[in-house]
Amino acid sequence: xxxxxxxxxxxxxxxxxxxxxxxxxxxxxxxxxxxxxxxxxxxxxxxxxxxxxxxxxxxxxxxxxxxxxxxxxxxxxxxxxxxxxxxxxxxxxxxxxxxxxxxxxxxxxxxxxxxxxxxxxxxxxxxxxxxxxxxxxxxxxxxxxxxxxxxxxxxxxxxxxxxxxxxxxxxxxxxxxxxxxxxxxxxxxxxxxxxxxxxxxxxxxxxxxxxxxxxxxxxxxxxxxxxxxxxxxxxxxxxxxxxxxxxxxxxxxxxxxxxxxxxxxxxxxxxxxxxxxxxxxxxxxxxxxxxxxxxxxxxxxxxxxxxxxxxxxxxxxxxxx
Length: 321
Fold this sequence. Notes:
Subcellular location: Cell membrane
Order of helices and strands: HHEEEEEEEEEHEEHEHH
Number of strands: 12
Pfam family, one: LRR_8
Oligomer: single chain
Largest sheet: 8 strands, mixed
Transmembrane segments: 264-293
Helix content: 25-40%
Membrane topology: Single-pass membrane protein
Distance between the termini: 135 Å
Domain LRRCT: 202-255
Strand order of the largest sheet: 1-2-3-5-7-8-9-10
């Protein structure tokens, strides 16, 4: 290094100086180098990778984890075709200038919400060919400059509406070959303007829930490559039918009120009569209950022997005093 040369020139003895002085100067030079090395960022390359001109190539190395000692000055990191299963929190904390990160064809099932912290300059992220079924809503907050995101060939069942709201500069998004059945209207409200959006080979269910996707495709037909390949999987009569060809009229029943006028008439007629009938039934049950109680009470009344005439007179006189 240039700074090492400067220190070497300063420490080398002048001609004619003693060997003892030269040895002391050489020792001082070594100590200075040892003390100053920690002040300079490491540009080393992991032993399992190859590094050249800012690119770190760790492809197909049977890695189960992202290497710890990736160079901080890397602008491209390729980790394709490995066996990485999880992207842990702060995995790329030192890679502040990284612009491209590729993890294609690994075994990733989970991306922790702070896995991409530190990648403020990242522009391209490839997570395709993995086993992701969901992503935390905060996953892309650390990468606001992202322009290309590839999530194709995963197992995504749904996408949180807030997931892409943190990517205002996104231009290319790939969601092909996942397990998506529909996308909510809130998802498209948070979706930035795209130049390319791949959606084919998903099991789209063409019921009322597919209308937000249909409407977006209709308004952005030039954004989706081979838009006719975005097809329904269910229901069976619409299998392999292009979503964009469904037509607005097919969604008319989705906006009908839950109760039709004849339904209201039915409730107005049946409701009051049912109410009156229930009151009558309650009165009848109450009457029968009272009658039963009286009958039971009367059956247990004590009847003594008939009083004599004199006794009846005394009682009569006592009551009328």
